[in-house]
Fold UBX domain-containing protein.
Amino acid sequence: QDGVDDRQQRSAGGASVGAATRQLPPEPDVGDRDACSIGVRLPDGRRVQRRFSRHHTLQAVYDYCWTEMDAALRDRPFGLAPMMPGGQFLSDYSQSLQDAGVANSLLVLRWRD
C-alpha cells in the first residue's frame, strides 16, 4: 500500500489526530539499540523529528507526518521522499525503515497533486 489510500480511508472515516496518534508505535528510548531518528521537512518549512524503531514501517512515519500537518491540509494527497535533488517518492509503506534505507535520515513531504 502506498500510504495515500490509507490516509484517504482515515480521512473519509473521520478519524481525528488523536486517533491517528494512538495508532503510532511507541517512541523508543534514546538508548534503544534499534532506535533511529527520522526528520521530515513539511511543506510549510517546519522540520519535525521523532524516534522510531528501525523495524517500524514507513507507514508509521507517514501517519506521524499526518498528525503534524495543519488540519486544513490533511485531505491533500502527499508522499515521502528522501531529502535530495530528484529524490523519488518512497512507494512501499509496508517496508521497515531499515529495509527502505531511511533509518537516521531526513525526508521531505511532497504533495502528490
